[in-house]
Amino acid sequence: MADYDFDVLVIGAGPGGYVAAIRAAQLGLKTACAESRETLGGTCLNVGCIPSKAMLHASEYYDQAANGSFAKLGIKVKPELDLDAMHGQRKDAVKQLTGGIEFLFKKNKVEWLKGRAAFTAKDTVKVGEREVRAKNIVIATGSSVTPLPGVEVDNAKGVIVDSTGALELAKVPEHLVVIGAGVIGLELGSVWRRLGAKVTCVEFLDQILPGFDGEVRKEANKIFKKQGFEFKLATKVTGAAVKGKKATLTVEPAAGGASETIEADAVLVSIGRRPNTDGLNLEAAGLKTNQRGQIETDHDFRTSVPGIWAIGDVIPGPMLAHKAEDEGIAVAENIAGQTGIVNHDVIPSVVYTWPEIAGVGLTEEQAKERGPVKTGKFPMLANSRAKTNHEPDGFVKVVADANTDRVLGVWMIASVAGTMIAQAAQAMEFGATSEDIAYTCHAHPTHSEALKEAAMAVTGKPIHI
Ligand code: FAD
Ligand code: NAI
C-alpha cells in the first residue's frame, strides 16, 4: 500500500459506483470515488429513476382525480395542476437522496474526488489537478442518451429534449411526440399524457417495449392506446426542424416509403442509452471497448487489465440501477478477496407506468428456443383485490420448463407489478418450480395471489377462473 494513495478508486458515483465505494470502505479498504457531477448518485438519483418516479407518482394522482377514478371510489374532486409545485417535490426528492449519499460517504470514510477522471497509467488517474494512484480502479461511468442524427436535442430550449429535459418541461405540451416506445418513452410519455398532453410515440420496430415478453408487449400496447397514447409503429424519424416553440418531424415507414410530417410542441428523443467512456483515456490504461462501446469484463467484473474492474451501464447487460448496485457490491467483495456474484439470469425489469409492467428471466419466446415450456396465466380481472380496487387491466404469466417445472420467467402487467416481481425473482433465485409457488400460502386479498394462481395454471389448476 505504501506507494498507493488508495486501495480502491471508483470512477463514477451512480448506483454502481457509490455502492461499490461504500461496500469497499465497509470491508476496510481505503477508498475514494471520483465524480464530476455537482451531486452524488449518478444518472439514477439526479436525472433518472428518482425524478422520473417523483413525476410519475404525482401525475398518477392527478390523472386519477381527473379521469374519474377517484369519483368511482366516491371521492369527488376537481384537480387543478400546480406544475411548479410538482416540479418542486421532484427536486426535493433528488436533493434529499443525493445528499443522503454524501452523508453515507462521510459516514463510511469514502473520499469524494470532485472532477472528471482520466487514466494517465493503468493504476493512475487524474481528477482535476490531482493525480492519484490506486491498487484497484473500478470504472462505473454509466451511460448517456444515444443521439439521433438530424434531431438535435436542446434541453434549454425545451422543444426537442432528452429524458433530462422531459423531466423539467415548464408547461404541459399540447402535443408531445416521443421517438422510441421503450421504457423512457412510455414512462415520461405517461407523465405528460396524464397532465393533459396528446402523446404520439414513433417507434422503429413493429411493437413497443423491446425485450419484454411478446404477450405483455401486445397487451401493454392495447392498454396504452385505451389511455390515449397514439403509436406509429414500424416508422422512422428522418429529420426535425424547430421554429420558435414548435417542431416539425419528418417520418417515413421503417421499410422505406412515402414520408409525412408531424407537428409537435415538444419532442422526446428516447432511443436508448450508450456507455460513457469518452475522455477516460482508456488507452493509457491499455483498455479497449467492444463494438458497442462497452467495457468487457469476466464474471468477477475484472477487465482485461489486472487491477482494473468495471460495473454498471458501462459494461454489457441491462442498463438498470439495481443491476449496477448488485455489481457494485460484488466487485468490492471480489477486490477484498471474497466471492462476489451477480446472477445475471435473474434481474427484474419494471416499467413504472399505470399499470406497472414487470418481468424477470426468460420471455416465453426465449424459453421456447431452449426447449419445451409450459405456461400459466391469470388475469388481474379475476384477482379479488385488483377488482375491488378498480384495477382490472393486466395479467400474470409464469413460464416453466415442461420437463422439470422449474420457473424460467415471470411476466406481468398489474398496478403493483414492480413490487410483485420481487417475489418471482426470489423464487427463481432459489430454483423454484411453479408448484413451489402454487403451494406457497399467499395472503388474501392481495395482488400477489395472481402470481400464485398463474403458477397453479401452469399445471391447469387455478381456482378463480
Ligand atoms: P450512472 O448512474 O450513469 O452514473 C455514472 C456516474 O459517473 C455519473 O454521475 C457521471 O457523472 C459519472 N462519470 C462519468 N464519467 C466520469 C469521469 N470520467 N469522471 C468522473 N465521473 C464520471 N433504472 C432502474 O433500474 N429503474 C428505473 O426506474 C430507472 N429509471 C430511469 C429513468 C431515466 C429517465 C433514465 C435516464 C434512466 C433510468 N434508469 C432506471 C437507468 C439507471 O439510471 C441506470 O441504469 C443507472 O443509473 C446506472 O448506474 P451506473 O452507476 O452504471 O451509472
Ligand atoms: P429502450 O431501449 O428501452 O427503448 C428505445 C426504443 O427506441 C426501442 O423501442 C427502439 O426500438 C426505439 N428506437 C431506436 N432507434 C429508433 C429510431 N431511430 N426511431 C424510432 N425508434 C427508435 O431505451 P430508452 O427508453 O431510451 O431507455 C434507455 C435505458 O434506460 C433502458 O435501457 C432502460 O433499461 C433504462 N431505463 C430503465 C427504466 C426502468 O427500469 N423503469 C426507466 C427508464 C430508463
From TrEMBL:
Keywords: Disulfide bond, FAD, Flavoprotein, NAD, Nucleotide-binding, Oxidoreductase, Redox-active center. InterPro entries: Class-I_Pyr_Nuc-Dis_Oxidored, FAD/NAD-bd_sf, FAD/NAD-binding_dom, FAD/NAD-linked_Rdtase_dimer_sf, Lipoamide_DH, Pyr_nuc-diS_OxRdtase, Pyr_nucl-diS_OxRdtase_dimer, Pyr_OxRdtase_I_AS. FAD binds at K53, T141, G142, S143, D313, M319, L320, A321, H322. Binds 1 FAD per subunit. Signal peptide: none annotated. NAD(+) binds at G180, A181, G182, V183, I184, G185, L186, E187, E203, G272. The active site is at H444 (proton acceptor). PROSITE patterns: PYRIDINE_REDOX_1 (PS00076). Residues 6-328 form the FAD/NAD(P)-binding domain. Its cofactor is FAD. The keyword Oxidoreductase applies. GO terms for cellular component: cytoplasm; transferase complex. It is an enzyme of class 1 (oxidoreductase). GO terms for biological process: 2-oxoglutarate metabolic process; cellular respiration. Disulfide bonds join C44-C49. It catalyses: N(6)-[(R)-dihydrolipoyl]-L-lysyl-[protein] + NAD(+) = N(6)-[(R)-lipoyl]-L-lysyl-[protein] + NADH + H(+). The keyword Flavoprotein applies. Gene3D superfamilies: 3.30.390.30, FAD/NAD(P)-binding domain. Residues 347-455 form the Pyridine nucleotide-disulphide oxidoreductase dimerisation domain. Its EC number is 1.8.1.4. The active site is a redox-active disulfide bond. PANTHER family: DIHYDROLIPOYL DEHYDROGENASE, MITOCHONDRIAL, DISULFIDE OXIDOREDUCTASE. Belongs to the class-I pyridine nucleotide-disulfide oxidoreductase family. This is Dihydrolipoyl dehydrogenase. The gene is lpdA.
